Structures are given as structure tokens and as C-alpha cells.
Amino acid sequence: DSGVTQTPKHLITATGQRVTLRCSPRSGDLSVYWYQQSLDQGLQFLIQYYNGEERAKGNILERFSAQQFPDLHSELNLSSLELGDSALYFCASSASGVTDTQYFGPGTRLTVL
Amino acid sequence: AQSVTQPDIHITVSEGASLELRCNYSYGATPYLFWYVQSPGQGLQLLLKYFSGDTLVQGIKGFEAEFKRSQSSFNLRKPSVHWSDAAEYFCAVVTTSGTYKYIFGTGTRLKVLA
């Protein structure tokens, strides 16, 4: 158990819908990272937040957004969903920055029908 | 553009045999380098990382990796593989100029024969 929790574990929704994925980092960790893993695209970094501020941005679509709240939990919002958004979405947390070990959550499996 | 290549999609070794998983990157400077392992149905776990200094890095579970600047490589090794090492292994690079970019390889799936 990494100490990072993600909810829900599974999500099934329809095209055009909007969903929110939630992540609670390990106690004391200030950074949260979001990743997408799919058969087509492999593992892709989406975005990093550090203590509530966006720190780094990867291949995150404009239809996707994220935020980190004062209690340090983070949410990833996916809107206007398409079939191709079906994937496993991981959250990770680290103490601070890029040189710190990232601890990954178990993931949320999103299926868009 | 920056990239990470793991040339072997699948590797099969016998239990007790040695293992080497290859990773090459394309980047103008020395990036931060990582190896992760992903067991079926689970998230990733960091095996080891390299930022600078000694080019031979020791990690968890008996793994080590060697950074070779001249070959832009960061290969993962283990002298004796255990059945529990069967998993998918990802090499990752973080570029260090300007905004950080996290780039993962496509992964190598390891099968271990008893």
C-alpha cells in the first residue's frame, strides 16, 4: 500500500459526459501528479501540482483540468468524454519536487461507452 | 524531440538467470532517469533513480542500473531473477531544462519461467 488513495476504482460513463477523479496524497506529501495509461498512448504524464499551484504540464487535453485543494487532495476533471479517453488514470504523490520518489495510487479505470 | 526507447516489448528469462532491460533516451542534456515496475492491476513502484554522481545506481529488490552518457542509455540489471519479478518495467526520463517534462518508455513485459 503506497498510501495514495484514488476514488473511484472504476467508472463507466458515456461519450460527451463529464467525470471527476479524486486523489488523496500520502500524508505530508505536497506534490500530486496525474498520469494516463492506455494501450494506444502508453503511460503519459498529464500534470503536476505542488502545494496548490500548477508546477508542470504534460500532454493534458484542453477538455481535462485538475486542481489541488488546500487540504492537498487533488481532482482531475475530464469533460466532453470520447471513446479514446478510456484508460487507467493514476495519481502519484511526492514530498516535494521531481527528485523525490513518487508513490503511485492504484488507479481509476475509466471506460467511456 | 525528447524520447525514451525500450526496444524490448517482451522478455522471457528463467528463474535464477540474469536480466538486463534496455533503455535509451534522446535529450540534449543529462536528464533525471528512473526505472519503475508495474505488477498486474497495480500502480507503479519506483525501483531506482539517477540524477548525478556515481553512474551505477542500486535500487530495491536487488535491481541496479548503469547510466552511460556516451550511449544515452540507462539499462536495468538483476543478477538472479525471481518468479515474483514478473511484471512490466518502465524507464522514465525527466527533462531538466525549462519546465519539467516526464517521458515514459513503452515498457518491457518480463516473463519468468520456473
Biggest interface, chains and residue tallies: A-B, 23 and 19 residues
Instruction: Give the helix proportion of chain B (percent range).
Output: under 10%
- The total of beta strands of chain A comes to 11
Distance between the termini of chain B: 41 Å
- Integer-rounded radius of gyration of chain B: 14 Å
Shape annotation of chain A: globular
Q: What are the low-pLDDT stretches of chain A, counting only 5+ consecutive residues below 50?
A: none
Q: What is the percentage of strand-forming residues of chain B?
A: over 45%
Count of separate DSSP helical elements of chain B: 0
Q: Hey, roughly how much beta strand do the residues of chain A contain?
A: over 45%
How much is the radius of gyration of chain A in Å?
A: 13 Å
The string of secondary-structure elements of chain A, in order, is EEEEEEEEEEE
Q: Quote the average pLDDT of chain A.
A: 95
Q: Give, in order, the helices and strands of chain B.
A: EEEEEEEEEEEE
Task: Quote the distance from N terminus to C terminus of chain A.
Answer: 31 Å
Main sheet of chain A? 7 strands, mixed
Oligomer: heterodimer
Total strands of chain B:
12
Shape of chain B: globular
Fraction in helix of chain A? under 10%
Give a concise summary.
The complex is a heterodimer of chains A (113) and B (114). By secondary structure, chain A is mostly beta strands. Chain A has no helices and 11 strands.
